[in-house]
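Can't paste images in this forum, so I'm doing it all in text. The chain is below; anyone willing to post the predicted structure tokens underneath?
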Amino acid sequence: MATECTPAQLQFHALGRRDVIGRFDGGRITSDGGGVLLRETDVRLGLLDRLAGRFSDHRNANSVEHGVRDLVVQRVYALALGYADLNDHDELRRDSLLALLVGRSDLTGLGRWRARDLGCPLAGSSTLNRLELGTVKGAVTDRYKPEAMDRLLVEVFLESHARPPREIWLDLDATDDPLHGRQEGRFFHGYYGYYGYYRHYCYLPLYIFCGEHLLCARLRPSNIDGSAGSVEELTRIVGQIRQRWPTTRIVVRGDSGFCRESLMRWCEARGHGYVFGLARNARLVRALGRELHEAQAEYLRTDEPARRYRDFRYRTRKSWSRSRRVVGKAEHLPKGSNPRFVVTNLSAERADARRLYEELYCARGDMENRIKEQQLGLFADRSSSATLRANQLRLYFASFAYVLMHGLRRLGLAGTAHARAQCTTIRLKWLKIGARLRISVRKV
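Text version of the structure:
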């Protein structure tokens, strides 16, 4: 029986008089040569070592080859480099560049005591899966500390400022995290529920950003109000901010899903500003009647979209405890009338009706770009584990991958054409660089 061997080179169809040959003698090749920029960013931030310190390793140290620190760092770097799934690590475990990022001195895996792992300096998918799913009976502490991870997100934000800012805006939003199995805590959501004929089961994570800084990523079941838990999260975040910045003004902003009496009353009691979208109803539309008529008349005259604004006091019949300032936007578009409303406790001297809506409220739309970066670019929507807790850990990993990428954008790309680029663009332009690795006694 003839032996089949892999050829040292491949012969392809010629290009004119030139032969086209493919060879495999290039040495150690990687497509992630720019990953060293992420390593330099982490050295500046001190992020991943602090993140790893939020984990407890209950394993027998004499039987452990990959410590918790290496597992956590490997997982976050892989997400930042575009490797979404644990299965990817069965090949990545042999990657010398990723081993360099993680900090493994044995980049090639040679000289290891376990023969089957020769040439594999990093952990495979099964080891990383046990990090997410493993439970320890009788352990005093859990495998990871979510409260400490929450504090770390805010710590990195505070450290990014050389001096306390005069004012910060905290943006809240909830979005859907689609599920395709029978994960713990899954429910059908009426708003996000129908994509064509597909019944959409999901989680409903809560995000809080300050500009481009991520402060909170909380995974929640979807059978709750979109604002559920926001007061508790803001209390925690603002309390941590106040310890460092006691005089900074804080303004909370969100869409109509967060226009709730409890949240507005919380802001008013503590002296914080707020700007929330307000769902329209018949009373609000009647209050804006004259402005809607004027906008329609201007549209008919000019055939261009027209806007008018009105500033007035408003109180619901039951749910609000007091009257509040409401700004109504009367807009007429080719498709018809489009009235919108926001409620705020900011004074008219601080911002008139037009500025409040167009500049202050509409600026929250940039937060939706940050959520897309998180969920689509850094795979925060890969919630395929069976338990809600394990999926929350995956969301934490994606969150810190975002913090690392934002750190590169903020520290390394300032003043460049990509200073405001999204994570996927940064990955494509700066990280996905072909490189050949040469490893010697003194140099990599």
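Confidence is low (pLDDT under 50) at residues 111-115. The first strand starts at residue 9 and ends at 15.
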